[in-house]
């Protein structure tokens, strides 16, 4: 991610130079886009560092959710610095054309195409790397499903940012080419606006997904199935009455369950069963960092959703 940050910073500087030489607004929108990407990668690195802090008395479950907070900030930066600025630039450039205040790019007209061409090659390589890393962890899930279900925010953020960068560069390349060929800078305005809309859409998707993580998501169905199998397979545990899981961070999982034990068991045997069940859960799901198992005796009053039924109202 450090290499990607430095690469985006370098690409942004090149795009700014192309904009200053030509005044083409698509280049300015893409330069701001690259600045936002570089800043976002810096935020993700900072979030990862902050999340590794040890738990304290004030924060007994640690700081794992820092990664979610910084990922949410990334979506805000992408929306405001990237998307809204590009839309404003398109609006501003449109009125410049209407007023006849726009200057011709002159002999530097070819510079944006060279810069965009090189940037497309570099972003394609970056996107390919992000796809390769995604394929290693997404299993049988599709890319959209992976983005919705991933508990690690960094990879979906980088994947969406690289996709947005590649599409934005394509929009800019087509817009600049058509503007230079036809002499009409309305194509440049359209390309800038499309880049802005693209960034706004990506930012909204990231915000929605990160909001879900901030609110607290349960473990994946596959992880919950492994946990259930580990608990119910422990000697001395009859069944799970109810269970809840919560991600404290991408690699930290809280497991809380009420388990049924035989009514005639002694406290010592119950404690041994709970200890054995906790060990089994950690073996089945290593990220289960906090496990709370409450023993109980299963009664007929428990419904299928594992909550005790309310007693029937007395008849008169």
Explain the overall architecture.
This protein has a 3-stranded mixed sheet with strand order 1-2-3. It is mainly α and 316 residues long. The protein folds into 2 domains: 2-215, Alpha-lytic protease prodomain-like (Up-down Bundle), CATH 1.20.1510; 221-296, 2-Layer Sandwich (Alpha-Beta Plaits), CATH 3.30.70.1350. Helix content is 65%, strand content 9%. The protein has helices at residues 2-22, 25-51, 66-99, 111-137, 143-149, 154-182, 186-215, 221-232, 267-284; strands at 239-249, 252-260, 288-296.
Short account of what is shown:
This protein is 65% helix and 9% strand.
Instruction: Please tell me how large the radius of gyration is.
Output: 27 Å
Query: What is the third-level CATH name, the topology of the largest domain?
Result: Alpha-lytic protease prodomain-like
Multimeric state: single chain
Mean pLDDT: 84
What is the CA-CA span between the terminal residues? 71 Å
Please supply descriptive tags for the structure shown above.
65% helix; 9 helices; mainly alpha; 316 residues; Alpha-Beta Plaits; 3-stranded mixed β-sheet; 9% strand; Alpha-lytic protease prodomain-like; 2 domains; elongated
Topology (SSEs and partners):
Layout: H1 2-22, H2 25-51, H3 66-99, H4 111-137, H5 143-149, H6 154-182, H7 186-215, H8 221-232, E1 239-249, E2 252-260, H9 267-284, E3 288-296
Parallel strand pairs: 2-3
Antiparallel strand pairs: 1-2
